[in-house]
Amino acid sequence: MSGVFEVISEPSPDRASRVAELAGIGFTWADIGDERYWIDQAVTMSSETYKELEQASAGLWKVLDRAARYVHGNHALYELIGIPEVLWTMLDELPMPEEGFISRYARFDFAISNEGAIKLLELNADTPTGYVEASIATPWMCAQLGLDSPNLAMRERIAEAWAMERPDTAACVDYGEHLEDSGTIEALVKHSGLDVSCVDCLELYVDEGVLKDGTGRAIRSMFALYPKEWMAVDEGGDALAYSIETGELAIWNGPHSILLQSKGLLAVVWGLYELGQLFDESERAIISQYMLPAYNKAVFEGSFVSKSMFGREGGSVRLFDAAGGLELEDREGFDTSALFPTMYQKRAELARIGTSEGELHLLTGMFVINGKPCGMLGRGGGPITGNASHFIAIGVR
User: Fold this and answer.
1) 153, 170, 184: which is closest to 368 by C-alpha?
2) In the beta sheet, which residues pair with residue 208?
């Protein structure tokens, strides 16, 4: 295959033993029922493209950090980017983290074309998943195939981040039942080197402002795979917000990560860029090269995408053609566009790769942990990367 990506290796005829080996190192959802989520092949990326991707990620991280600080405290902008009102007090009253650390655990998702053009699609700065695939399964695959894996640094970055945050608890919904989320928090805890209890979000309750687990133990500092916008819709969301506002609970990622999480922030950046405000020349160069035009209204000539500002896993994504007609929409993921505003973004082409599961569009994730870009996540699927997509390791040649 020409271009910056090449698929190497053929799947092993003995998939079962390899799936069992991956489960033994912490990746227990390589197969989900009868579905082959993990593709037993690897994609190689040229070292030049990887270096550019790393530099683009570092530059975009600074641009979005600056934009989040610009939005901070401005309720009209909170409303514009869909921040639920239940979160406004905590965002205004709790101290903003230092530059580069609004989120300590985040993942950019990029469209990289077969020719190597890099465009940012979105930033998952609140509760990104894919950590086990990137930090455990990808280096395992790369080692077998003689590829370099920048992902080896991810564990060290997590240990640094958690040493700063020092959570006493890690939580996800359906802990012990939901393989991916449970495996993700267990891997993060293991890599942190700290003594941290893993619990189910559904067993937690707030008692006089203090968050407690099912045994009545008080939780003071918690890492949670729990999207913060859910506080606006969940029963008990108000009580959890109060616990955070009053300093009874420290939550990680911190509350301000929701400013980065909102896809509406990408439209704020693009608007400021078009107005010639806020950003210096080097930041403007990064925006023009690596970001896509984005607005809170569909004002495009040519094809575009609409997404809920808090859509996840492809839910709520709709692709429109050059004439403005609906071409494709995600029907698998949960559509949050009834709950949150919509943003509109110019379409970008994803590279296409030939795999054992057929020709797939490749989405390239880049984790930013403790402020440093440090690990890639490869996912292959249709034009919209949703719940039915596959994981494929990316290494550097």
Assistant:
1) 153
2) none
Nearest-10 Cα torsion for 81, 86, 92, 93: -160
Task: Tell me the backbone φ, ψ of residue 138, rounded to 5 degrees.
Answer: -65, -50
The sheet with strand 218-219 has its strands ordered as 205-207, 210-212, 218-219
What pLDDT is stored for residue 313 in this prediction?
Answer: 65
Residue 396: phi and psi, rounded to 5, are -110, 130
Tell me 277's DSSP state: -
- In the predicted model, residues of the chain with pLDDT beneath 70 are 1-2, 312-315
Which residue's entry shows tokens 């990620």? 57
Paired tokens of 73? 């405290």
Rounded Cα distance, 184 and 109, in Å:
18
Return d(Cα 47, Cα 144) in angstroms, integer: 18
Half-sphere exposure of 340 (CA within 13 A, CB side): 31
Longest pairwise C-alpha distance within the chain: 61
Intra-chain end-to-end CA distance of the chain, in Å: 14
Assign 3-state DSSP to the chain and report helix, strand, coil percentages, each to 5. Answer: 35, 25, 40
Q: What is the DSSP string of 2-59?
A: -SSEEEE----S-HHHHHHHHHHTT-TTSEETTEE-EEEEEEEE-HHHHHHHHHHHHH
Q: List the one residue out of 129, 102, 138, 111 whose CA is nearest residue 184.
A: 129
Cα separation, 52 vs 85, whole angstroms: 38
pLDDT of residue 46: 94
| pLDDT tens readout for residues 55-113 | 999 999 999 999 999 999 999 999 999 999 999 999 999 999 999 999 999 999 999 99
Cβ contact 128:107 at 8 Å: yes
Q: Got the DSSP string for 115-148?
A: T--EEEEEEE-SS---HHIIIIIHHHHHHHHT-B
Cα 302 from Cα 163, distance rounded (Å)? 47
d(CA 187, CA 249): 23
Span 159-204, pLDDT tens digits = 999 999 999 999 999 999 999 999 999 999 999 999 999 999 999 9
Give the list of residues 6+ apart from residue 212 with CB closer than 8 angstroms, or none: 204, 205, 206, 218, 219
Place of tokens 């530099």: 55
